[in-house]
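User:
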Amino acid sequence: MKKLQLLGMLAISMTLMPQVSQAQGILKKLNKGLEKVNKTLGNATSKADLATGQASQQEDGVLVYNPLSKAIDIELVGAYGVSTSENFGIVELVLKVNVKIPESHILLGGDAGSKGTMAYDTEGNVYKMVYPSVGHDYDITEGLTVRIVMKGSDSFQKVPKSVTSFPVLKLFAHLNWDYRGEIMFKNVPVAWDVEH
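Assistant: Predicted structure:
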């Protein structure tokens, strides 16, 4: 009797295996198709944004969406990972900021309601700063490009060292009540354990 049951189960599993394998193949094809569509749409959006002036592109390929461009020029020098354990670390930002209006400080990081500072990895995970609702004040001078290193509590925390890029990084900036908003960077490479 046990042999008959075993043979029956074996026969059923043999008939189901091709369907499972076929379904897995279809899912893989669908995933590849979706990846191509996302890349195409992302590239088309980026090209359109560059053409209309809504975005600028840095030499390293990073796209910058700066709604405060009348008041500041901002460049992301780099996103640098610093190991805190074998598999995780923090990511610090280095920026160059040139202010075009008479202001002596800029608040970077934190948030303002729904707009906030966060980074997304390729798998959709979100990384925030130590105190996501609080930004940090940095000294600036009108007409002078200032290098700003966002580290410590202004860095992104608990980032796996396997993360090598942020497709989207949003940075809240506040100069004054007329000039505040979310600056977005796209296609940001993350360099781990290098001098910056």
